[in-house]
Amino acid sequence: MMTLAADREIEALMALHPKGFDLSLDRISRLLERLDNPQDRLPPVIHIAGTNGKGSCAAFSRALLEAADYRVHVHTSPHLVNWHERYRLAADGGGRLVEDRVFADAIARVARANEGETITVFEILTAVTFLLFSEHQADAAIIEVGLGGRFDATNVVKEPAVSVIMPVSLDHEAYLGDRVELIAAEKAGIIKRGCPVVIGAQESETALQVLIETAERLECPTFVYGQDFLAFEENGRMVYQDEDGLMDLPPPRLPGRHQFANAAAAIAAVKAAGFEISHRAAEKAMINVAWPGRMQKLAQGRLAELAPKGADIWLDGGHNPGAGVVVAEALAEQEEKNPRPLFLISGMINTKDQSGYFRAFKDLARHVYTVPVSLSDAGVPNDELAVRATEAGLTAEPVSSVANALMLLRDTWDGPAPRILIGGSLYLAGAVLAENGTPPT
């Protein structure tokens, strides 16, 4: 868990500044100017936007670069258990989460530079990213967009080595618009004139067209999934293909067929950014890649011990209909290989389409236990969430906690060892990892 120094700094920020997002680049630009523009002193940047798959692409990109012996900084958001997870600093043998002393000092310096002016905490912590990454040597920096793209606080990097747009679908409609083409236009805001662009697998042709048109208008070298590169399964392996030829690779360690496309986008992005990735490095990356809280198997821990004997437990923070579809598909793949009754333990927040998420599991899940999301003020009450699951065609009942849901299932289920998905919110995923005693490291 977070030690006191950084904890105190962030608590002070939370008390002083408004929560949430305020989409503009004026405040972050003013603050970075006072810090002597650290965002202009970064190693080559891989900048990643999208509705789903951003974190997986970042994880694959990091694994690829580190397997090729490059030193890599990584910024992701949100964190699951500990604020330090957002900042991974390059090190020999693989990056390390930022040390508390270094983190607290950077927060304090950025806060002093801001001089108490109006700003959001996310903007301050994004400035911390740039400060830390500019002060520690690395060969590359992977930076994940927080929300949207065009006005996200990370979008002050003038010339990224590559801009990556992962799958675009409806989410954060209050900020980004209620049509997929509007959301795609916001994500496309990270594309910079003349800089390479990688477009990951898109379900929406409308979104894809917006992204391609933006890249063409800005005269960017553009690499599109399904046109310029792709990945497919063959004989239990992953085959990656682009203009340079084929790579026959192990299947990604991250489960789900959607991870083939995410891995392919990362390979294309790293190559477009100018890095040499050998076949051997790509093999190593597929085997070693890790991304906590996204289809993460819970094989041990305090919560896992409460489940029915032999249960197959998965944790996933996906929280919108698009994420529901890919997670359901991943579980359906497992059902084909190893049939088990599926139960959901779900908690969600009120800014998400709860019924849309649950609909993806209509013909797959046997029952849903709905639980509160205690780490967010926006958590949907568990009884109300049960109604949303029922509206989506599932049977559901509210339960007071994940632990109680696992024990209830253990005490009432007398069939074969079940498969359990705990998910619906990154807040819930973080709480589960903390309670289970298995936080990200």
UniProtKB/TrEMBL annotation:
Transmembrane segments: none
Database matches in InterPro entries: Folylpolyglutamate_synth, Folylpolyglutamate_synth_CS, Mur-like_cat_sf, Mur_ligase_C_dom_sf, Mur_ligase_cen
Gene3D superfamilies cross-referenced by the UniProt entry: Mur ligase, C-terminal domain (3.90.190.20), Mur-like, catalytic domain (3.40.1190.10)
Top EC group: ligase
Keywords: ATP-binding, Ligase, Magnesium, Metal-binding, Nucleotide-binding
Residue ranges constituting the Mur ligase central domain according to the UniProt record: 48-270
PANTHER family referenced in this protein's UniProt entry, alphabetically: DIHYDROFOLATE SYNTHETASE-RELATED, FOLYLPOLYGLUTAMATE SYNTHASE-RELATED
Family of the protein in this entry: Belongs to the folylpolyglutamate synthase family.
Protein's UniProt name: Bifunctional folylpolyglutamate synthase/dihydrofolate synthase
Organism, scientific name: Mesorhizobium cantuariense
